[in-house]
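Hi R.,

As promised on Friday, here is the backbone we talked about, encoded as structure tokens. Could you run it through your design pipeline when you get a chance and send me back a sequence?
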């Protein structure tokens, strides 16, 4: 009798444990959160807004009037091309597990958006929303490069280069950091794209500018921006859209997203004022181009840190990026003599490096940040951040250089001197930005 009671007791215990385990599993199963989904739909639209019209107008205003339309056309075409390539295989290379190569690049398990349907989830949001949110990052990163070699690259060469660069540079580096790759495993912190987006684009832009060569007449010929009004409008659009970029990278409508938005505003304002005052002190007058450039520098620098630092950390990052990017774009560029037309390296690469390194400092809870991982010191986190920066730069330089040489062999990279003199609007597109 005791034996039967013991068996019954064990049976009931097993059933209870099974039921509790099933309930726990059910609770852990991802479910759709409508609030998170609504926010991410909005964030996705904001990030796309950064490229067209934000970046397009920001760059168009800074070039000469004979090239304004060509720059906008390049940004628009990149948006279309990257969207299709992302659907075909880019998303898979960045976010699929990759099998035996999973630490370095994704596989083709999600090619042609396989498995992405109405019911598939990524955390608490539809996977379709996550995929398109990430697509907007894959769009703006190569578009940023346009400013480095503006006014001199063939349109056909641009399309070839951007397609190859997405495939062999952007997607692998995105996988390293966000897709389960080796930098993420190492503990590198990049909340919204300091390494993946800005260092990647800034370094590639510099390599392209050097390989293509200087604009005709640079640096002796005056090449002033033709419409700083357009540039300021574009900068304002970038500023607003960047809230989707940074706060959206939390992939949820929560406190971290709120803090990411707050620190984005703080760092941007601090960097804009810092650049303005530095220029004022150096040249006697503050400029509209300077304050706009400073704002973008702050946006860039806070990007990797936005989900990890607090308000005072953001203030420090803003001030330091304003100083660093000002000197890189003005003094370093002049000393080195390279023709980075719209200061892509000085703002995006340098700002991204400053932000990535300082993320390792200001993530410390003692400095108002979210806190370091258990057993990790500030020094060791800064070392990890530095590894991520160096790895991205080295890989980017080598592969970008190879891709540029391939494209040059296929279609040629640069327009002729006569075409450059006439302007790319009419030469490449048979249209003009202004018919006056």
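Update: got your reply. Pasting your designed sequence below so it's all in one thread:
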């Amino acid at each position: 009798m005791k034996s039967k009671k013991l068996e019954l007791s064990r049976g009931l215990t097993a059933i209870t444990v099974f039921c509790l385990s099933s309930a726990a599993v059910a609770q852990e199963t991802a479910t759709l959160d409508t609030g998170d989904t609504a926010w991410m739909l909005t964030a996705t639209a904001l990030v796309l807004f950064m490229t067209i019209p934000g970046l397009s107008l920001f760059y168009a205003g800074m070039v000469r009037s004979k090239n304004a339309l060509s720059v906008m056309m390049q940004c628009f075409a990149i948006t279309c091309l990257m969207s299709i390539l992302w659907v075909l295989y880019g998303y898979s290379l960045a976010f699929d597990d990759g099998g035996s190569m999973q630490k370095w690049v994704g596989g083709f398990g999600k090619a042609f958006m396989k498995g992405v349907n109405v019911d598939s989830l990524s955390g608490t949001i539809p996977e379709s929303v996550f995929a398109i949110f990430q697509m907007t990052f894959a769009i703006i990163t190569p578009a940023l490069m346009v400013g480095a070699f503006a006014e001199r690259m063939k349109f056909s060469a641009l399309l070839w280069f951007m397609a190859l660069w997405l495939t062999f540079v952007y997607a692998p580096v995105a996988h390293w950091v966000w897709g389960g790759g080796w930098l993420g495993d190492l503990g590198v912190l990049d909340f919204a794209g300091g390494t993946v987006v800005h260092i990647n684009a800034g370094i590639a832009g510099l390599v392209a500018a050097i390989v293509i060569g200087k604009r005709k007449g640079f640096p002796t010929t005056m090449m002033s921006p033709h419409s700083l009004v357009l540039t300021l409008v574009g900068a304002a659009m970038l500023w607003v859209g960047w809230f989707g970029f940074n706060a959206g990278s939390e992939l949820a409508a929560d406190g971290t997203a709120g803090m990411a938005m707050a620190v984005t505003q703080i760092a941007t304002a601090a960097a804009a004022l810092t650049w303005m005052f530095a220029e004022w002190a150096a040249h006697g007058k503050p400029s509209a181009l300077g304050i706009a450039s400073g704002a973008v520098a702050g946006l860039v620098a806070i990007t990797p840190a936005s989900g990890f630092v607090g308000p005072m950390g953001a203030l420090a990052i803003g001030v330091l990026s304003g100083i660093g990017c000002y000197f890189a774009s003005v003094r370093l560029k002049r000393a080195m003599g390279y023709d980075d037309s719209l200061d892509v390296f000085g703002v995006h690469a340098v700002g991204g490096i400053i932000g990535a390194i300082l993320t390792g400092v200001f993530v410390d809870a003692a400095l108002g940040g979210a806190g370091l991982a258990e057993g990790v010191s500030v020094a060791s986190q800064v070392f990890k951040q530095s590894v991520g920066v160096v790895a991205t730069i080295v890989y980017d330089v080598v592969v970008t250089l190879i891709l540029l040489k391939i494209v040059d062999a296929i279609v040629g990279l640069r327009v002729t001197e006569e075409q450059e003199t006439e302007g790319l609007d009419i030469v490449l597109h048979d249209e003009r930005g202004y018919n006056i």
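One thing I noticed while checking it: Residues 32-425 form a domain with the Ammonium transporter fold fold (CATH 1.10.3430.10).

Thanks again,
M.
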